[in-house]
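Re: the request from the purification team.
They wanted to know what the chain is likely to look like in 3D before they choose a buffer screen. I agreed to run a prediction and write the result into the notebook, where they can find it.
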Amino acid sequence: MPWYTYILRSIKSGKHYIGSTNNIERRLQEHNSGKTKSTRNKGPWEIIYTTEKYKTKIDARKRELKIKSYKGGKAFKKLVQG
């Protein structure tokens, strides 16, 4: 099963959330339904970036941590602006 790294943006506040999953649609639904504590009451959320498929959870998590390391900087802005 492939793994992905993703960035969400809150339609309400413009804030971002970075995560990884093996099921993007399910994960977005969890964020929007309040099942994820860190994003509860901050949505609705939309997917603005997804990575290519990774073979393992570890690889997707490494990419997630890399993106988090430059959140707010030029590299992050380049990702979220396309």
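For the purification team: The chain has a mean pLDDT of 92.
Please add any questions underneath this entry.
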